[in-house]
Design goal:
163 residues, 2 strands, mainly alpha
């Protein structure tokens, strides 16, 4: 078992004068947390499945990049299972950078939203787009769930722990 190392994580946000500010603050907190869990993780362990499902640390962040792009930018995803594997040629820094750039683009979209009831962009015809409120809530849930998975996987890789 690797030696335990403790990372200093950013604490949960202490904000929320409005529903939008609260939702966005918690989503940004979780986005920062999961990117930090992956950033600096060693190759090839960052791609190695540590559980029978095949889940790996870099794949989680790659998946969340697709979730953000699909939900907030309207990009289509044809094979969600494939998003759990990062391209072999992409380094940890590339995958983390792509996630952060996607988050920035998603935040640009969210900055222009003044109504939480407005629909998000939707690439799938025939299905109604969820509201911005629903999308923010779903992304908090999805990112938080995978951040918990990432905590465990990172600790198995090199002993690093954190919130």
């Amino acid at each position: 078992m690797p030696l335990r190392k403790r990372r200093d994580d950013t604490p949960p946000p202490r904000t929320g004068s409005s529903e939008t500010e609260t939702l966005r603050a918690f989503l940004d907190y979780l986005r920062t947390s999961i990117a930090a869990k992956v950033d600096g993780a060693p190759e090839p362990q960052v791609r190695t499945a540590a559980v029978p499902s095949g889940t790996n640390l870099l794949g989680l962040l790659n998946h969340l990049t697709f979730v953000e792009r699909s939900m907030f930018l309207g990009d289509p995803v044809t094979d969600w299972q494939a998003t759990f594997q990062a391209p072999p040629a992409d380094s940890v820094a590339v995958v983390v950078g792509r996630y952060r750039a996607t988050v920035e683009r998603a935040n640009d979209f969210l900055d222009g939203c003044t109504d939480l009831n407005a629909p998000v962009p939707r690439a799938r015809p025939g299905r109604p787009a969820p509201s911005v409120r629903w999308a923010l809530t779903h992304l908090i849930e999805e990112t938080g769930r995978h951040a918990g998975h990432a905590d465990i996987l990172r600790e198995l890789i090199d002993g690093t722990t954190g919130r």
